[in-house]
Amino acid sequence: MIVEGAYRFEGPRQAVWDLLQDPDLLARALPGAQRLTRTGEDRYEGVMRAAIGPVTAGEFSVTVTLHDKVPPERFAMTLEGSGSLGFTRGGARVELREVQGGGTSMTYRAELRVGGRLAGLGQRLLDSVAKSMTRQGLDALRRELQARLAGGERQPDRSP
Amino acid sequence: MKPAPFEYRRPGSVEEALDQLAAYGADAKPLAGGQSLVPAMNFRLAQPAVLIDLNGVPELAYLRADGGDGLRIGAMTRQRAVERSALAAQAAPLVHEAMPYIAHPQIRNRGTVGGSIAHADPAAELPAVMLALGARFEVRNRSDARWIPAEQFFTGLFATVLEPGDLLAEIAVPAQPPRSGCAFEEVARRHGDYALVGVAAVVVLDGHRRCRDARVVLLSVGDGPVLAASIAQQLAGEELTPDAIRDAAEAAATRDIDPPSDIHASAPYRRHLAAVLMRRALTRAADPARTAATRVPT
User: Fold this and answer.
1) How distant, in Å, are the alpha carbons of A21, A87, A148 from that of A74?
2) What pLDDT score does A48 carry?
3) Could you report the per-residue pLDDT of A3-34, keeping only the tens digit for each?
4) Residue B39 β-bridge partners
5) How would you classify residue B118: left for phi > 0, otherwise alpha for psi between -120 and 50, otherwise beta?
6) Percent of chain A beyond pLDDT 90?
7) How many CA atoms lie within 13 A of B172 on its CB side?
8) pTM
9) Candidate from B46, B157, B261 with C-beta closest to A56
10) Pairing mode of beta strands B50-53, B154-156
11) Rounded to 5 degrees, what are φ and ψ at B204?
């Protein structure tokens, strides 16, 4: 499964970068994330609980490793998740570009393999679920960013 | 496979069901026809602690003409009962036409109208049909009852405004406006499979046979039923010529949907199919609307 897209943040690139490197914040923003802990240099472990419609029992342990970091431009990550309902493995690339007018454009592309009962029974829904979780997560990140910028932290150098 | 252990309650009346739903809250799941919930439980994808079986509540199963020529459907009415109902065929032809597309007869014998709507599967026919018709849903809980329009009821993937303790009790399908027509189209790999794309269309003409309103709702192309807003914008005030219909369908397929890819169909194929099915549905819906327009004076 491929999940890709672009998202526009109203804020400077460095602020968006900082957001994406903060595990506590990501744990709040990612739908279903119960916790995310830094367990090493660029390595995070956590627990996610996915509840979609009648499916209530999906708890996954997740490991995320960041690599190829070029702050504040791009990074890649390796994802591994497993739970009683199945597993997922894959990687993602994230790129941040400054856009005219003061915003930041993020492009992302993830390639995920999903297996187990989750894939067998939920195949027709995987794409929709991934899209919907991505959208929720990005909207939550945008709100966090706005809260941070409004909260008196460093303001963008170039005001729009 | 077998489900995880659960408690079972079988209320004999709506009041009793509402009391039990209130008592168990988020631990409870109402059981209607069980055609989605029970398989999910057997695979242990769903593990509700308490099942409240509504099959012992006869007062929730009925089809009734309402005063204004609309149709009232009790939430526990079997899909098969609607399919075989002369009243439904006459008062709610779009609902009636969509029925045979829902899975297989065995499933429709048990599956209920309310169950399908409350489950809100993005591939389900009834949520799309109800949204196209502008139906309203009566939601009851122990303390009150409220009517929710279909536009506000579906909130996402398998998600509705229903809260723990709530019960979908009745569906009110409005009367067909004068000079209107409707059509349902769907393509699935095999009959009875989940739809690759489905379309429910309602067309209303004015006294000059121009389009007053065109409500087209798609299924299997998003998180829930998706209203193709471009269609009404583009066709309002227009004569429904084949060219106008085709252009509107193409515009809606490009602008209004973001269909998923899966092993059965890619997103671009679903988009193509959506345009074709919208065109067919609008063409068919416009036909009886025109005939009706010649009969109904302005």
Assistant:
1) 11, 26, 21
2) 86
3) 999 999 999 999 999 999 888 888 888 888 88
4) none
5) alpha
6) 46
7) 13
8) 0.89
9) B46
10) unpaired
11) -120, 130
B7-9 and B50-53: which strand pairing?
parallel
- d(CA B296, CA B298) in angstroms, rounded, equals 6
- Whole-angstrom Cα distance, residue A77 to residue A121? 27
Q: B220, exposed or middle or buried, with CB in 10 Å at 0-12, 13-18, 19+?
A: buried
Q: Which of A33, A92, A29, A35 is nearest to A58 (CA)?
A: A33
Low-confidence ranges of chain A (pLDDT < 70): 56-57, 152-160
CA distance A158 to chain B (A): 34
Task: Using an 8 Å CB-CB cutoff, list chain A residues near B120.
Answer: 53
Can you tell me the distance from the alpha carbon of A97 to that of A72, in angstroms, rounded to the nearest whole number? Answer: 9
B180's enclosing H/E stretch is strand B180-188
Place of tokens 């744990």: A27
Chain A residues with CB under 8 Å of B156 CB are 132
